[in-house]
Amino acid sequence: MSFISMFENLYDQIESVNRLRSTLEEQIRKSTALLQTLQASGQMIEGLVRSHFREMQAQYGEKFGKALTDLNRRLIDVEESHRRLTNNPQEISRMKDFKGFGPLSAQPGNVPQTFLNSPVDSHHNQQNMICQE
Fold it and tell me: pTM of the prediction?
């Protein structure tokens, strides 16, 4: 009997090895399929993120461009006003008659009337009002 039991044991071990091998092959196939699915999902998510980033970049780029254009326009207006004042002595004397120009405008806290509508100066004026209280 011991001779036959040795073959039975060998047969059982071969059968067990074959079952384990087929289970391992099945797990490898499932893992490969899952890995491919994850890679495809990663590429899809990357594409979505890139397109969303492009949209945001275009949106903020447009806002930034508009702000730069507005600042450029305001700078040109200021430069043009300065040119008109420096090139026309009559304009300088006429402007001194208005509040905000002339010797008083050089004192701290005096803001020329032409600049009171500027967003930057309105913040500055608010700070001056708080400091004076």
Answer: 0.39
